[in-house]
Amino acid sequence: MLGIPTVADRVAQTVAKRYLEPLVEPYFHKDSYGYRPGKSAIQAVGVTRKRCWRYDWVLEFDIKGLFDNINHDLLIRAVRKHTNCKWMLLYIDRWLKAPFQGEDGTLVQREKGTPQGGVISPLLANLVLHYVFDKWIERNYSQVPFCRYADDGVVHCRSEAEALRLRENLEARFGKYNLELHPEKTKIVYCKDDTRRDEYPNTSFDFLGFTFRPRRSKNRWGKYFINFTPAVSNKAAKVMRQKARRWKIHLRSDKSLDDLSRMLDPIIRGWISYYGSFYKSALYPILRHLNRILVRWAMRKFKRFRRHRKRAEYWLGEIAQRQPWLFPHWQMGVRPMAG
Question: What's the pTM value of the predicted model, to 2 decimals?
Answer without folding.
Answer: 0.91
